Amino acid sequence: MYGIDVCWLPLGAGGWFVRLNGRIYERILALREHRRPLDLYHSALEVRVPEGRYVIEDSWPIPDADGASRGVVVEGPVGSPAFARLRALRYEVRRWRDGRIPDIAYAVASPQHVSGDVRQARRLLEVAPSLPPLRWGRDELGIGDMWNSNSVVSWLLASSGVPAEDIQPPPGGRAPGWEAGIALARTHRVGARVRQPDSELVLGR
């Protein structure tokens, strides 16, 4: 089936460190907002077009310097840009042909099919290299939502014409950063900046 699927993975799936810190963060925030803690989710995309299948995911830390093997199209700083020369303090966005989502076995209520429009799917693949590399974990937009992997996914969806604001994580959960991606897509015009590659460049990674 051609189109775009969202996969929801519990934050820190497959590893205890991120999961533990996520739970601590969510409990503190829930106390501040006078609500019960919710499950936190990280999102990734599977995009299928006639030319092939692609995985799009934002990953940190970067595992090694061979980004081309994973279809990396964007890198951005984690925290301070001053230290982004260190691979451990940069994140990468992958547009990976025939790629894999490492923790897909932990996915919940997934895949969520959000578009069957091949034009939207191709558009998403095209705009991926034009993603603005905002600082991971910071609220640079001043909207009360930090930039992270969910921001990347929602920005790509919204910039491709998919109504990202209508997409929700599994019941009882939330996706921090989702609103940040949508907000940036509303103010950042991709059309003038997006690379217009031929099919071999768009679909060759």
What does this structure look like?
This protein has 205 residues and is of the alpha+beta class. The protein has helices spanning 16-33, 118-127, 149-159, 178-187, 199-203; strands at residues 3-10, 39-49, 52-59, 72-77, 90-97, 112-115, 173-174. Strands 1, 2, 3, 4, 5, 6 and 7 form a 7-stranded mixed β-sheet that branches. Helix 3 crosses helix 4 (178-187). The longest helix has 18 residues, at 16-33. It is globular.
Number of beta strands: 7
Question: How many strands, which pairing sense, and closed or not: the largest β-sheet?
Answer: 7 strands, mixed
Radius of gyration: 16 Å
Number of helices: 5
Label the overall shape.
Answer: globular
List the helices and strands in order. EHEEEEEHHEHH
User: Can you tell me the residue ranges where pLDDT is under 50 for at least 5 consecutive residues?
Assistant: 191-205
> Structural class of the helix and strand makeup?
alpha+beta
Overall helicity: 25-40%
Count up the domains.
Answer: 1
Distance between the termini: 20 Å
Rounded average pLDDT: 87
Q: Beta fraction of the residues?
A: 15-25%
Indicate the topology:
Elements: E1 3-10, H1 16-33, E2 39-49, E3 52-59, E4 72-77, E5 90-97, E6 112-115, H2 118-127, H3 149-159, E7 173-174, H4 178-187, H5 199-203
Helix pairs in contact: 3-4
Short description:
With 205 residues, this protein is of the alpha+beta class. The chain has one domain. The chain has helices at 16-33, 118-127, 149-159, 178-187, 199-203, and strands at residues 3-10, 39-49, 52-59, 72-77, 90-97, 112-115, 173-174.
Task: Please supply descriptive tags for the structure shown above.
7-stranded mixed beta sheet; single chain; alpha+beta; 205 residues; 5 helices; 7 strands
